[in-house]
Amino acid sequence: MKRESQSILPRSPLAVRIMRAVGWLERVPHTVLALPLRLAVATVFWNSAMAKLANWDTALELFREDYKLPLLPPETAAYLSVSIELIAPILLVLGLATRPVALVLLGMTAVIEVFVYPLAWPTHIQWAAMLLVLLCRGGGKWSLDYLFYGRFGGTQGGASRGGG
């Protein structure tokens, strides 16, 4: 006779409620999580661009004196960073090219962490965590990626028809 497996948790009313809550949380679709992730990351980088553009001379001075990135002249680094910070948030809000944008912003976050603000790792690891979810799972069903992949025959990943 086959013994049925027994749960390691007792069957108390509290344990049953906890297991129901966990089960409910595990069924939350990626799409519901992806939208606030996209908006949160977009806000961080958009605000940074706005701060640079509010006083461009100060931004250039920061790149010349404080940031000092290797391999890039300060002016090039400033224009490149503000361009990314302007374009990437718009794409994230739309859910367009979510994965490539997440990869670019992960790279930018790594550069900021290593060369600019190494002591700000608690903030940067939060950005990286959000970006990694978007990189790995895509923008979700409430994104232009989902619409385009479905229209052009995509079948895999977080932006596709089956990706949640």
Describe the 3D structure.
With 164 residues, the chain is an all-alpha fold. It has one domain. The chain has 7 helices and no strands. It has helices spanning 13-26, 30-54, 56-67, 74-94, 98-116, 121-137, 144-151. Helix 2 crosses helix 3 (56-67) and helix 2 (30-54) packs across helix 6 (121-137). It is globular. It starts with 12 loop residues before the first helix and ends in a 13-residue tail after the last helix. Residues 156-163 have low confidence and may be disordered.
Helix content: over 70%
Overall, the morphology is globular
Query: Unreliable segments (pLDDT under 50, ≥5 consecutive)?
Result: 156-163
Give the N-to-C terminal Cα separation. 41 Å
Number of strands: 0
Describe the main β-sheet briefly.
none
Q: Report Rg.
A: 21 Å
